Amino acid sequence: MDSLCDAYILSIHSWLPIISRKRLFERVNLFNEATDASMALLFVCMKLVSETPPGLEQEAISSLYCMAKKYFARVEASGSISLLLIQSAILISIYEIGHGIYPAAYLSVSNVARLGMIMCLHDQKKGSSVGKGLRHLDRMRGRKKELGAIVMLERYVSVMSFWYYGHPDYKIEFYYYDK
After folding, report:
1. 102/115: higher pLDDT
2. How many domains does the chain divide into?
3. What is d(CA 27, CA 21) in angstroms, rounded to the nearest whole number?
4. Spatial separation of the C-alpha atoms in residues 15 and 12, rounded to whole Å
C-alpha cells in the first residue's frame, strides 16, 4: 500500500492535491479491507490514475477501469456517501478525461458535482457528515480542495462537450418569437 500511495503522490497529487497526504498514510496503517469499502475504492482509483500504460496499444477501457466503475457503483448504491467516495469519483473522472472516454467523462463529472452538492461542499455554513471527528479547519481545507477539483473538471468537460454541440452535423433549430 505504501508504494501505491507513493506512486500516487509523485504523479497525481502534485497537480491535483485532493487527498491529504498525512491522513492518507494514517488510513493505510488502519485500513481493514473487510469493513472500509470507501477506502478500498479510493485505493483502486489511486492505482487507476497513477499507473502508466505499458504501451500505445493498451485500451483506455482496461479491466482495472471497469472494476473501479463497478465498485464505485456498489459503494454509491450502499448509501455511504463520504468524502472518500467523492475523491474516488474525481479520480475516475480524471482517468476518463485523460483517456478520452466520452460521454462517460461528462456523466461522471456531473455525478461528482451532484455528490458534492449532497455533501454541501458548496456551502461552508451548512453541516454535513464530511470528516466527523476532524478539526474544523482540516474539514474546511478538504472541502475547498474537492470543490475546486469539481469546478475545474466541470468547466473542462463543459468546454470539451461544446465540440459535440458546436459540430456542423449537430443541428438545433431556434425559434424566435417577435411580439
Report:
1. 115
2. 1
3. 10
4. 6
pTM for this entry = 0.78
**Residue 156 CB neighbours (<10 A):** 14
Q: Is residue 172 part of a domain?
A: no
Centre a 10 Å sphere on the Cβ of residue 64 and count the other Cβ atoms it contains: 14
CA–CA gap between residue 102 and residue 105 (Å, rounded): 5
Closest listed residue to residue 85, CA positions, set 112, 48, 123: 112
177, part of any domain: no
Residue 168 lies in a domain: no
pLDDT tens digit sequence for 9-48: 988 888 888 998 888 888 888 888 767 899 999 999 999 9
133-158 mean pLDDT = 69
Residue 14: strand, helix, or coil: coil
Is residue 169 one of the residues assigned to a domain? Answer: no
Residue-range definition of the domain harbouring residue 103: 2-52+59-162
